[in-house]
Specification:
2 copies of one chain form a homodimer. Chain A folds into 2 domains: 21-259, Aspartate Aminotransferase, domain 2 (3-Layer(aba) Sandwich); 261-361, Alpha-Beta Complex (Aspartate Aminotransferase, domain 1), CATH 3.90.1150. Helix content of chain A is 35%, strand content 17%. Chain A contains 9 helices and 14 strands. In chain A, helix 2 (46-62) crosses helix 6 (242-259) and helix 7 (262-282) runs parallel beside helix 9.
Amino acid sequence: MKSNRIFNFNPGPAALPVAVLEEIQQNFLDFKGSGMSITEISHRSQQFEDVINDAMARTMRLLNLDDRFDVLFLQGGASMQFAMIPMNFLAGDRTADYIDTGTWSAKAIKEARIQGKNIKVVASSEDKNYAYIPRNIKFNQDAVFVHLTSNNTIKGTAWSQFPDTNGIPIVSDMSSDIMSKPIDTGKFGLIYAGAQKNVGPAGVCLVVVRRDMLDRIPETVPTMLRYNTYATKNSLYNTPPCFAIYTVHLVLKWLEETVGGLDEMAKLNHKKASLLYDFMDTGGFYRPTAEADSRSLMNITFRLPTAELEQKFVQEALKNGLGGLKGHRSVGGCRASIYNAVTLEAVEALLDFMKNFENKNG
Amino acid sequence: MKSNRIFNFNPGPAALPVAVLEEIQQNFLDFKGSGMSITEISHRSQQFEDVINDAMARTMRLLNLDDRFDVLFLQGGASMQFAMIPMNFLAGDRTADYIDTGTWSAKAIKEARIQGKNIKVVASSEDKNYAYIPRNIKFNQDAVFVHLTSNNTIKGTAWSQFPDTNGIPIVSDMSSDIMSKPIDTGKFGLIYAGAQKNVGPAGVCLVVVRRDMLDRIPETVPTMLRYNTYATKNSLYNTPPCFAIYTVHLVLKWLEETVGGLDEMAKLNHKKASLLYDFMDTGGFYRPTAEADSRSLMNITFRLPTAELEQKFVQEALKNGLGGLKGHRSVGGCRASIYNAVTLEAVEALLDFMKNFENKNG
């Protein structure tokens, strides 16, 4: 770690690879010999087209997508997707199934209902405070999609395997685990991810859509809220968030060329998470909040014996160069977000701190 | 000019103050001693709250806004505002007047009509290819707002004075001249501006709204598309585009503390535009496309005797370190965008080049 940097366990916006930050910094006043900053060049220039096309091509390769899919860059984060999905895909009396695994799933459900859409919540883990992922779900065969949240940032749970929907396309919020491991994209109709956790800074939302999903979008949907607008214009209908897309492009380049792709990334992410879970499971001072078979590899949520100790833990950790360990304000406790850019070195430093803190306070 | 930089006359994304770019660069790996990049810090941190609050406070001071107004930061650019304005303000059979002064006005009109809203186009300058700003407009007294585009980036026209609407609030797209001069904000119900011309990078839209405009927003408008969501949550309902807001904050700081406010900025902008218009008016080789009383001070659109000379002009200018002088693809010709961050030095360099080019080719 560089002397002026901390180990960053923030849940999002979150750590970015240092090599990416350094490349941005180095070229910030003169992007590729243009004599302009990346924040000053035209989105219609060849230089920027190369950036956005490269980000799309790397997304296709990393996720192993076939040519039925388009990669789009939108604004408004996952929260805007909660509104756009029913607006685009649930014309008239079309219906969809939603699975409720916590705060973000619930917001997606709420936005469909605000628009008066006919949706059904087919499973929920609210009965145990969202500490698990529902199994054996019965889906409605007239649903045009099944919506789920692949990784629950606040509750610390994740789908280790996606459900069998009998061919109904899955629409998934993958904001907090996109690009953390390979996925079977054949099951999905649409994947969306606010970039600010695993693939970039806040201000851009990565969307992967299977083109046949775009067939029945109502004419009354405004241009900027139609997926078609982005699919047919290479996400350049209007001025896109250029700096955020540029950063995503650099993060994906790092993921392909430095890390070596999603298989390698998954191995490292599994190792990082196991270090923390295995340690907590053998003690008793730190208690993971998610059930063992539903645990997230990205957001490790845990409690200490008392709220006072949790506060002390977060404060002392920061003094030791470990930031962002406070749990979400809606649930309390502690949380270590260990996204792709959080290094093994950072996780080992956290583990050491946890052991020392337990020795002093346990 | 630094050796590796060019004079940037891009229409947007556009030039930013070099001092702002240097400050971003210098602090990019460690924002205010946090040990994190501005792209890595939490939007719920005190550090980021200070940034967004400062950007809002400076907007209030620079535009001389009273406490009836809120400053908001949204995503999706002005194009998303075209959709949000009718969605929020034209419930049921409410009606509004729109003025058509070119491409961007027309897009605003189109988005209201896509939603089936009852609007009237009360004036248009289409008859003369949008080379002028309409005068003596009769407004409908049942209109809940009058929509206009204050500066027309593509056609090179601007409102030097806003129309008397008999008290109907004006809703204005000010993307290309926000903060370029003082305005009488008392006439306005809502002002919006994609940041990437005068106040920052692409990826954030500055909105100023008079709070009484927010009284009758329909319940069916999705959360992310309601102005209220931003007004009641300090634009932090969800993760905002942190880097773009940070840059806006630095640009506004530069505008207040280095330039000295909008009166000073207006003087400089007037001087820059006059240099170019006065030169063109005394010759005949370069012909401004906008009528004299409707000219923009931000986007100087002009023609040369032939399309071949225009192409040569743009290419030779770039070789001489003057970039972005091509007219919009929909109208052809040439355009010098001389927003706030384009220096007098840059305009003087352009003027010298224009004189030399005319001497060689006239």
